[in-house]
Design brief:
globular; 150 residues; Rossmann fold; alpha/beta; four-stranded parallel β-sheet; two-stranded antiparallel ribbon; 6 strands
Amino acid sequence: MKSAAFEVNGILTGLPNLVGVFRICLVTSLVLISWAFTACDIRDDDSGSASILLFNGTGTSPNDVKAFETILKDQHVNYSKVNSSQLNAMSESQLREYRLLIVPGGNFVEIGNGLTQGTTTNIRGAVQNGLNYLGICAGVFLPGTPPPTV
């Protein structure tokens, strides 16, 4: 693992490369998610409707989306992908029809700019009313309370 070295009080210290740490955390998260799907027996249902909504909109990391797709397919989980404009068109009640909304990592600013304020309000409302939410890295912020405006 690459490290950046610097000196503190005459002692040479190294910090791990944060990209490497992020990758380890991402892989660990994906493995845990895979185990959770297996343990909860979340599988395709007879109705054919998707129980999981995977966000692949503006600002998401294509590799993160692909990693989630691999896990979901390997576990035979029925899911739907939704881009920014599709998510913007969904109401809170439409979001609550799903068991889980997954928002992978990426560029938080681009993700936020691709979604309307109404969409983030709908996501927060759906999560507060029972929608499970999994946000990784930049995706973790959407269902939270927005900071007060000054």
